[in-house]
Design a protein that fits this description.
Rossmann fold, alpha+beta, about 20% strand, 2 domains
């Protein structure tokens, strides 16, 4: 089974991102997932693609496909529900005596096409994330930070929320930082605001630390626009600090001081 990323259903342009191989008629037989490791083609057709969501899909599929009791339900769900941005492109049979070797061959065929010659132009959340990473690197603290902090570890499986950066401060605090693009996706603020309180509660319960979250947004925004004003208000109502990406050097410097780097 081949999975494709199709960000615009009208244009119909898509790229191969995932491959599933399941041995038919054998519940405990071979079952494996491979996703591309080179996301440049995805970013070429969609510079604002949320790679975290796509990578989380890979992890979820790999976990479920290996669970024999869940495999039939997963296959049914994929056949009936996959559409839109990620769609089930094709299903075909494959005769092989070595499925582990065959899936690697197929993955190379589907994912390792001609290299993309032009770099993707980043914008939205990915651009903010890139600038955050650069600021932390320039401050010399990048190697001391936690990255891709999964809310599942503190709440329950299935939230799919991953916070970009964070660090523990002393014995009682955890500081978190997450890129949020209000220019390209104002609704992402509501999603973060809805999920953060449970994460904060989980951190307090499991580590005894008070969490603080900073949402890093674009520098040039029309804050008088209703959707931007609403997004910012939604974040601050849940005690999420909102800072411009232009403030990242100061944020990174504060992290350097607090971490004693």
């Amino acid at each position: 089974m081949l999975l494709r990323y199709v960000p615009d259903a009208v244009k119909g342009e898509g790229v191969n991102i995932g491959l599933l191989m399941v041995e038919p008629g054998a519940e405990t037989g071979f079952a494996e997932v491979r996703f591309t490791q080179d996301w440049r083609k995805v970013q070429c057709i969609d510079p604002d693609a949320d790679l975290e969501i796509l990578q989380a899909l890979e992890r979820n599929l790999r976990l479920r496909i290996r669970d024999v009791s869940d495999r039939a339900a997963l296959m049914k769900m994929m056949k009936e529900s996959f559409s839109g941005t990620v769609e089930l492109a094709s299903m075909s049979g494959c005769m092989t005596e070595n499925p582990a070797e065959e899936i690697e061959t197929l993955a190379r065929m589907y994912f390792e096409g001609p290299h993309v010659s032009r770099p993707a132009v980043r914008s939205g959340r990915q651009l903010i994330l890139q600038q955050m990473r650069r600021a932390f690197e320039q401050a010399g603290v990048a190697d001391f930070l936690m990255r891709d902090i999964s809310a599942d570890a503190y709440t329950r499986p299935g939230s799919r929320l991953k916070i970009d950066f964070g660090y523990r401060l002393g014995a009682q605090e955890m500081k978190l930082f997450h890129a949020v693009s209000l220019k390209t996706n104002p609704d992402s603020a509501s999603s973060l605001a809805d999920r953060y309180p449970l994460l904060a509660e989980g951190i307090l319960e499991k580590e005894g630390r008070l969490a603080s979250l900073t949402a890093v947004i674009e520098e040039e925004l029309n804050h008088s626009a209703p959707e931007i004003d609403f997004a910012v208000a939604t974040l601050t109502a849940k005690n999420i600090r909102v800072r411009s990406v232009a403030e990242m050097p100061a944020i990174a410097e504060q992290a350097r001081v607090e971490l004693g780097v």
